[in-house]
């Protein structure tokens, strides 16, 4: 049984970080939040690389889209929390790695994945991921990508939506029929054009905010399930008939 964070013994653990010379107040707040975050402590205790692992665990526990034997592409994978969950749930191993991951940030390798240290927005990145799939379709595309925040709500929203749009376009190219797309967005809703596209391409589209997402955060996820399949490419010779 999965233990919930907190519980008896969690009281009285609140820690304070004293402001040191040269340390910004925002840095102090971040450190205090990390020290007092039950998901951070739980990740350390259970061997996950980040607290983000519990977001994917919670969403998959609820909707059940990761199953043994599936192939998964993880966009914005570092430091690897989502990869760990995906590897475990699809039963990926070194002999037949079923998880393909990419991030421009350095990430320590782990068994069961094919890893690219590269920006997904690079022109050649999608082809590398397709090649790594070995001619097979993916069953799930995950994207926890996020652009550096500016503090300007509208700008940050547009940046994250752009990443989601690029990830959704890629998913439409590599997903097998019935596949799943999960991507980070910000509250305020997914842009109508993107949402319309997802609704055309998937049976069900919903917004999800797992409990592991901090309550004060604008972060949420768009989950699209039941991919209808890529539209067939028109044969130019037939079009001339």
From TrEMBL:
Region labeled Disordered — which residues?
A: 1-21, 208-241
Compartment list: Cytoplasm
Q: Where is the Ribosomal RNA methyltransferase FtsJ domain?
A: 48-227
Catalytic reactions of this protein: uridine(2552) in 23S rRNA + S-adenosyl-L-methionine = 2'-O-methyluridine(2552) in 23S rRNA + S-adenosyl-L-homocysteine + H(+)
Q: Provide the active-site residues from the annotation.
A: 184 (proton acceptor)
- Record field: compositional bias (Gly residues): 1-10
| Primary site of residence | cytoplasm
Q: Name one GO molecular function term.
A: rRNA (uridine-2'-O-)-methyltransferase activity
Q: Which domain of life is it from?
A: Bacteria
Keyword Manganese carried by entry: no
List UniProt keywords, sorted A-Z. Answer: Cytoplasm, Methyltransferase, rRNA processing, S-adenosyl-L-methionine, Transferase
**Binding positions (S-adenosyl-L-methionine):** 80, 82, 103, 119, 144
**Looking at the UniProt record for this protein, which Gene Ontology cellular component terms does it annotate, in alphabetical order?**
cytoplasm
Q: Recorded E.C. number(s)?
A: 2.1.1.166
What family name appears in the similarity comment?
Belongs to the class I-like SAM-binding methyltransferase superfamily. RNA methyltransferase RlmE family.
Functional summary from the UniProt entry = Specifically methylates the uridine in position 2552 of 23S rRNA at the 2'-O position of the ribose in the fully assembled 50S ribosomal subunit.
**Family matches, as HAMAP family:** RNA_methyltr_E
What protein does this entry describe? Ribosomal RNA large subunit methyltransferase E
Recorded source organism is Amorphus orientalis
GN (gene name): rlmE
